[in-house]
Amino acid sequence: MDLDDFPIGPFHLRDADSLGVRRRRVRSAEQRGLLVRRTRGIYQRSDLPDTLTERAQAVSAALAPHHVAVDRTAAWLHGVDVFPAGELASGPLIESCALRGRTRTRRPEVDGRSRDLAPEDVMTVAGVPVTTPLRTALDLGCHLHQRDAFAAMCLLARRHGLTTRDLQRELPRYRRRRGVVQLRMLVPWVDPRVESHREAWVLLEVVGRGMRKPELQHWIEVEGKPTFRLDFAWPDARVCLEYDGYDAHLRTPEQRQYDEERRRWLRENGWTVIVVRNGDFTGRSLDRWVLQLARALRPSYTNRRW
User: Fold this and answer.
1) Which range has the worst mean pLDDT, 99-113, 210-224, 229-243?
2) Where are the alpha helices (DSSP H) in 180-282?
3) CATH code for 197-297?
4) Distance CA 242, CA 271 (A)
5) 252-286 pLDDT tens trace
6) Worst-scoring range by mean pLDDT, 31-40, 54-63, 133-142?
7) Which residues contact 282 (CB under 8 A, 6 or more apart)?
8) Which stretch of DSSP H or E encloses residue 301?
9) How high is the pLDDT of residue 49?
10) pTM over 0.85
11) Cα–Cα distances in Å, from 274 out to 72, 95, 142, 251?
């Protein structure tokens, strides 16, 4: 059994027999790494790249006619992954809704929903009907947990050029909809300069606790040249906050030394540098850096006499 035994494009497990492949061989091929499961019931050769076209073909193989990919599936097709890693690896359900006048799908690999979509809410991506980036961002702002919702909105804004004004313009349509309170809170804070999910989490903690919004991706000039880029900065207070993500431990010794020297230079030149790491979003670890930041941003001058 090798890769050439399987179709070039994504295929549904139910179609395996008609393609000359027995179902048990499909599962065996997945275990051997010859096939990957793109969504539940949809398989694809592992030598094919994870491109937008391949994703669309996988969704199309599961999607019923007259249905639209929505929510996390729509974000995935728009180039933003908001599925948890474990769920994505095991093949998540396709999230879809029926177009007006149609019934929602009952296919086991599809999470079928009903939703009132206007024609301007739908576009086609590689042949697959899908909600637009704007509609997808707003829907996820209602449906996901707060941190994941905010990350999805920021990353869709970054990738597709959405602005806060774009999002605010659509808010009246969501009146009385479930999740709209959260959506209204998040929309003014969305920033397309956010580069990752966890950076969005950091920004949400900062603005959600009433602290001043920072400058994102702020450059420090040395001798008139942009030299150091900071994830979050409050230049007037000479405070910066940096997020060390999942790949921090993968950096080369030279990269780690550069980070240390860069932060040393910042501190020696009057900056307060706060570093947030992957595990610093719960409990005492979260409280520690939030309190440290609040103290650093507190004005040093007071007109009180005592």
Assistant:
1) 99-113
2) 180-186, 197-208, 253-268
3) 3.40.960.10
4) 12
5) 788 888 889 999 999 999 999 999 998 999 999 99
6) 54-63
7) none
8) none
9) 74
10) no
11) 33, 39, 31, 19
pLDDT tens per residue, range 227-258? 999 999 999 999 999 998 766 555 778 888 88
**129: enclosing H helix or E strand:** strand 128-131
Residue type, 107: R
Structure-block tokens of residue 236? 């007037």
Q: Where are the domains of the chain?
A: 49-189, 197-297
Q: Give the Cβ contact number of residue 130 at 10 Å.
A: 26
Measure the CA–CA gap between 89 and 74, rounded to whole angstroms: 17
Output the furthest CA–CA distance in the chain (Å, rounded): 87
d(CA 89, CA 106): 23
- What confidence score (pLDDT) does residue 303 get? 55
Q: Which residues pair with 232 in a beta bridge?
A: 216, 241
Residue pointed to by tokens 């004005």: 299
Count of all residues that appear for the chain in the document: 306
The strand ranges marked E within 6-83 are 11-12, 35-39, 42-45, 67-69
Share of the chain above pLDDT 90, in %: 52
Tell me the backbone φ, ψ of residue 233, rounded to 5 degrees.
Answer: -145, 145
Checking 113-118 for CB contacts under 8 A at 24+ apart, the result is: 113/70, 115/70, 117/68
CB atoms within 10 A of CB 123: 18
The end-to-end CA distance of the chain, in Å, is 82
